[in-house]
Amino acid sequence: MQNGKDSFYMALRARLAAMNPERTTMLRGAVRPGILVEEAEATFSQLPSDVFVLRWLGLGTDSNLEPAMMAAECEITYQTCGCQSFGGLDRGRALSAMDEELLAILQPFSTPKLSYMATPPAPMLTQVFWDEPLFGPVVTQRDRLSRSVKVMVYSYQEQGE
Amino acid sequence: MAAGWFSAAAPVTRRVRAYFAPVNRVAQVPVIFDPSEQGRFDLNAPPAPWMNLGWIQGFTRTASSKSGAVMTGIPAATLEQVRESLDAQISFQFLSWTKLTMALASGSQHMNLLVPASGSAASPDGAQAAAAVAIQSGSTATSIVLTAADAAKFTAGCMVAVDVDYTGQTGFLASPISGAYVRQSLRDIDYIRRVTFNVALVSDMTHAGLLLAEPLPGGIPSAGAKLQAVAGFVDRLGGSFYQEWSGLFVMEGSQGERVIFHYPRLQTMTDAEELPVPLALKEKGSLQRVLLKAQFRALPTTDLLDGDRVLCYRSFLPASKALV
């Protein structure tokens, strides 16, 4: 499933960079699109604001199929305090903007599967695809608004995986 | 890297897309779809004359054809099978209300409510209409040329119907999409514009006339066509006209494969019905989305390849690099 997870993240990252190049984050000394995979970074004491953070949760498989299908649940969390220049009074709007961005980058609901073990990434044979997102409620913590969204991501196991 | 192909599992689809094209009722000629040439068409831009009716819900195919056994011997055993009857139906719900989806989901003719003339007597399917205006030469499917005086009677945002005057014809009316069948002559000069599918929204006004937000389904207005404003649409329970269209339904799989169902002839088989669906998740709240229920019977056509009579063609275009 690792290739599926990688392909899903990279597709979202490329779509976000194309749609809103201004949403960036500074990570390990580099400016990157504002989306990251939690398990692939150093641990955070506090999740960064105004960034989409992907966290992989459950895993399922349907081995009756040929090829076997894997399903991984991805939780995408994001939070914002709004802009300093507005004193945070725009935090609701900022969260709405992130809701819309996430909905937009999740479409279309599929992307070609690539192996990122190789450089450059090697195209595989199948597509990674996912279900409609399930948006959780907004959580308010002092001046911080956050939301988590769950998406089920599917991938066929290819020969050699 | 692994082999250059894979075994594809059963298609995983999200939803079904519907397209319809008008059957030539006078000549009884359906619209043919060739999956070998057109199967990979852009789902947002179907090949002419197919019209995009958007995503549908609850698409169900029911084959009711019957086979019988030819028995022989003692004790009798099946020698061979014969097809005794040919019948199939499909049903689904349209997710939007438009002129075309309403018409297809109604069991009879579907009419435009023409904007009435001032002071005209009330009528359940629209009062006597305000006088039609003549369309000038140079019009296209998306721009209607009018005289300045006539253009001043319309505004951006209004709906219009475009077709010729009714002059006592009988048989199938409106062209190229038949909107009604008339057995005996009527008196209403606007009758064809009441039943025509040539309707559109006016997006803008120009010095030369009207710009339309979408092309007229019938294309360039025919000679002698006139234009009237439309207030809405109406259909009736009852009547004797059956809508007949060619239907195309596309399921796109997660791996890029396509399943295409082509019904050359579909006739609406039930009266107008709606399906209310709760809008909120878990059925909370009282808001409901009202879907149009549609049910069709497939009629046979003769396949010129071998002379067999068929109701539907199911095509499968596999995913790239999938084993077949």
Structural topology:
The complex is a heterodimer of chains A (161) and B (324).
Chain A: H1 2-19, E1 24-27, E2 30-33, E3 35-37, E4 52-62, E5 69-80, H2 91-105, E6 110-115, E7 122-130, E8 134-135, E9 139-141, E10 144-156
Parallel strand pairs in A: 3-4
Antiparallel strand pairs in A: 1-2, 4-5, 5-10, 6-7, 7-10, 8-10, 9-10
Helix pairs in contact in A: 1-2
Chain B: E1 13-22, H1 35-38, E2 51-63, E3 66-72, E4 77-85, E5 88-94, H2 99-105, E6 110-114, E7 133-134, E8 143-145, H3 148-151, E9 159-163, E10 171-173, E11 180-182, H4 191-195, E12 199-206, E13 209-212, E14 226-235, E15 244-253, E16 258-268, E17 273-278, E18 288-298, E19 301-302, E20 309-310, E21 313-317
Antiparallel strand pairs in B: 1-2, 1-15, 2-5, 3-4, 5-18, 6-14, 7-14, 8-13, 9-12, 9-14, 10-11, 12-13, 15-16, 16-18, 16-21, 17-18, 19-20
- Separation of termini of chain A? 8 Å
Series of H and E elements of chain B: EHEEEEHEEEHEEEHEEEEEEEEEE
Total individual domains of chain A: 1
Q: If helices are DSSP runs of H or I spanning 4 or more residues, what is the number of helices of chain B?
A: 4
What is the percentage of strand-forming residues of chain B? 35-45%
Tell me about the biggest sheet of chain A?
Answer: 8 strands, mixed
Q: How would you characterize the overall build of this protein?
A:
The complex is a heterodimer of chains A (161) and B (324). Chain A has helices at residues 2-19, 91-105, and strands at 24-27, 30-33, 35-37, 52-62, 69-80, 110-115, 122-130, 134-135, 139-141, 144-156. Chain A is α+β, with helices and mostly antiparallel strands. Chain A has one domain (2-156): 2-Layer Sandwich (STM4215-like). In chain A, strands 3, 4, 5, 6, 7, 8, 9 and 10 form an eight-stranded mixed sheet that branches. A two-stranded antiparallel sheet of chain A has the order 1-2. In chain A, helix 1 packs across helix 2. The model of chain A has no long low-confidence stretch (mean pLDDT 94). In chain B, strand 12 and strand 13 (209-212) form a beta hairpin. In chain B, 6% of the residues lie in helices and 42% in strands. In chain B, strands 6, 7, 8, 9, 12, 13 and 14 form a seven-stranded antiparallel sheet that branches. A six-stranded antiparallel beta barrel of chain B has the order 1-2-5-18-16-15. In chain B, strands 3-4 form a two-stranded antiparallel sheet. Classes of the chains: A alpha+beta (161), B mainly beta (324). Chains A and B meet through strand 7 of A and loops of B.
